[in-house]
What we know:
alpha/beta; 9-stranded mixed beta sheet; two-stranded antiparallel ribbon; 10 helices; 23% strand
Amino acid sequence: MNIIPSTLDARKPTYTVVGGAKSKGCADSFPVSVLILNRGPQIYRTSFLSDLAHIGFDSILSLESGQNSVELEGLVAKFPQVRFITFKEKVSTGDCINVGVRESCTPYVFVLWNDMRLATSTLSSRFFEKVAELNLAVLVPALHDSGSGAVPSSSHPAVSRRNLKTLQLEPKTDGEKTLFPFDWCGIYNREKFMLLGGFDYTIANPYWQKLDFGMRAWLWGEKIHYAQALKLNYTGLLPSDDMTIDSAYLRFWLKNLAPIYSGDSAALAPSVFWRYLFQTRQNPLLAWEEFKAARAWVKLNSFRFKSDAGTLANLWDPMQ
């Protein structure tokens, strides 16, 4: 666990891909692949896939747990534009997205869950031209619960007693900034995602895994904004995040909050180890190995940093 990945190729889970005959040539109506994350019951699966195909998505990837192989045979025949990726091992959501982005063949990847529905009636080519013009790392949607209430899906940083806090608010204005994609959803720029290294599979807690990706994007000079025209509705209960201060948080802290930016690069000072040791409360030798791994990762990527967490929070303006 002491190795911190810098590229998507650092880990390659075992999986198989079936279907997708139409998408092999990548001649899609839209320059975007839909990446479906699956959870809970899938009783409306056929209608969900039909809706996506009707909108005009010719490249659809569905990430499977490997438990529905019989059902998949029928779906492959009915939906030739869908590729089903079945994992042979347990993987995190971030891992799933890493694989889906790697397997996609379009400039953009639209990530959503099977318990969501697109509220936008039509997505035109002009919309995706606008996405290209914005050139963001991620364009996140407006989310609404099953009762049509707005979800507080916009995350903003704030400094409190030298610690970084995040505030979850309802997005108000088109183009508003957010720290990370809430519930993983959004239109990801494939090239930027791969250059950022994707989601860190070594961070087990989903919340810190999401925040790690978002903070890295902002600290490395990329942007994540909200798009009012892109709307998703939940059909079931809203997910909840576990924000426990655990080993996943501490790795996130070492990578994103502890480095200091000066001149044209960032560094993780040796003196930070003592604060880390106090927080982790583990064997000093194990803590030192973890700290060394983080310090090596920061050094490897030092010139990719354009800011540090304190500066990012202090200068944060949702509309700039």
